[in-house]
Amino acid sequence: MSRFSKRDILAGSMAALGMGAAARAAGAPPTMPKPAPQALPIARGRFDSSVESLNGYDAPEWFRDAKFGIWSHWGPQAVPRQGDWYARFMYVPGHPHYDHHVKTYGHPSEFGYKDIIPLWKAERFDPEALMDKYAAAGAKYFVSMGVHHDNFDLWNSRHHRWNATAMGPKRDIVGAWQKAARRCGLRFGVSEHLAASYSWWYPNHLYDQFWPKLGLAYDGADPRFADLYHDNRDEPFRNTPESWYTRNAAFHQLWFRRISDLIDNYDVDLLYADGGLPFGEVGRSLVAHLYNKSISRTGKLNAVYTCKDSGSGEFHRKAVVQDVERGVLKGINPSPWQTDTSNGDWFYSDNFDYKTPAQVITMMADIVSKNGNMLMNVVQYPDGSLPPQSEQLLAELAAWMKINATAIHGTRPWKIHGEGPTEAAEGMFKEKVDYTARDIRFTTRGDTLYAIALGEPAGSVAITALASDNPHERRRVRRVRLLGHRGTIAFQQTGQALVITMPGTLPSRHANAFEITFA
After folding, report:
1. Strands 141-147 and 187-192
2. Which helix (H) or strand (E) holds 294?
3. pTM for this one?
C-alpha cells in the first residue's frame, strides 16, 4: 500500500484544507454560477435514471467469465516518480510530494501541476506490444485511465482543453489502448476519477503559511487556469466521505458531458468510478446512458458499471457491480464483484514495494473463489514502458495461466469458497495476506471442481471439505489431476479428508491447481 493512501484525506491534509477561508479572503475569481436545471441526453432504451429502473440490471456473462483484467493507471502524475496523488499533495506543505516538488521543480506558486503536464511525453508507449503481453498474462478485459483527479483527460475530449491530444504526449491515449484491446479480443473499459476532482484538488488554491513564501498563492488561484484547477474556493470541504463528491450543480453537468463523451466515442464495455455512484440523478442518468448505449450497440446489455460501497455517493447493489479497492469481500457473494488493486503504487514511484507474482496469483484465486474479478494495475514508467517488476509479473502470470487458466476463466463458485487457516479481512485497503499450503480455494466448471493450493505443498495435500462424509458433495471422488502434470496423481478419500499425494516436482511455481471429477 502507498505511504499516503486515500485514507490520508482524513488526516494528513486537514491543516492545509483549513486555510480555505484565508484563501478566499485573499481574493480569487468568483465561483461557478448555479446552472438552470437541464434535461440530460440519455440514450433511448429500457433504463432511466430511477433506482427502480437501474435495479433491473444483470452483469453480463463476459464479465462473469473474465475473472482477470489489467488496468493502466497512468498519466502525468507518473512524471515525478513519487507515486499516487502527486497533483494534490504537491500543494500540501509537510508532505513528501511537496518537498520533492520544491526541490526538483520549484515552488508551486511558480511551477505548478500545469507545468508537469508538458513533461509527460509517453515517448516509449507501445500499446500494441503491451496488450500482447497483457493478453498472454490472462487478462480478458483491459481498462484505460480516462481521467484522474488531476482533471486531465487522456482522450480527444470535446469538452475540455486540458487533454492528452492537445498537450503532453499529444496523442489519444484512450483511443490507442482501445484499438490494441480490440485487436487482442479483450473487452475495453475506462476509469473515471473526475467526479471527486472538484473537492480533491482544493489545496492548489492555497499558499504556504511560512517564510520565505508566506501568503504567496499557488498557481491554482490563477484565474487563467480555472478550467484545470477548478473554481472551487467556496466548496464546503470537511474531509468526510460525504465531501468526496461536490454538490456544485454546474460541475455535475460538466462531468456528465465529459464522461458521456468518453462512453459515446470509445464503445466502452466497462466504466469504473472511484467512489460511490456520484451526483444523484445526474450520476444515475450516466449509468442509464451507458447501459442503453451498450444495448443499442451490441443488441444486448454488455456494459458494466463498477463503483464502491464506501460512504461516498450512492450505492445500489442490484444496479451496479461492486468494486473493492485493495481488498476483498467475505465468502461467496451472490453477485459478481471486482477487486481493483495494483502491483505497485497507483502511479509509478521510485520508492515503493511491489507485490510478488505469488501474492498476485494467490489473491486472484481467493477473489475468483468468492465470485469476484481482479482488476490489476500494471505499473508503467512515465514514458509508457514497464519497470522490471511489472515485466516479471506479466511473464510469471503468462506461465501460470498457460497451465492453470482453466481453473480461473469461465468458472463459477462452489458450495464454499475455500478452507484453511488464512482469510483476508473484508473491506478496502486490507489486501496483505500470507497464505500457506493448507489454504485451498475452490472454483467449478460444470461438474468439475478445481482446488487451488495457495501455498507450496510438499508430500501430500489434505482437503477436509472433500472427506467421504462431507455435506457439500455426496458423490465419491473418481479422479484427481494436477494441472500441468503428465503423470497419475494418487489420492485417498477418507472420513477426514481427500488426501492427495504430491509429485516430486510441481508444474507451477505458484498456486498449483487440482482438477477433481466425481463418480
Report:
1. parallel
2. helix 280-298
3. 0.93
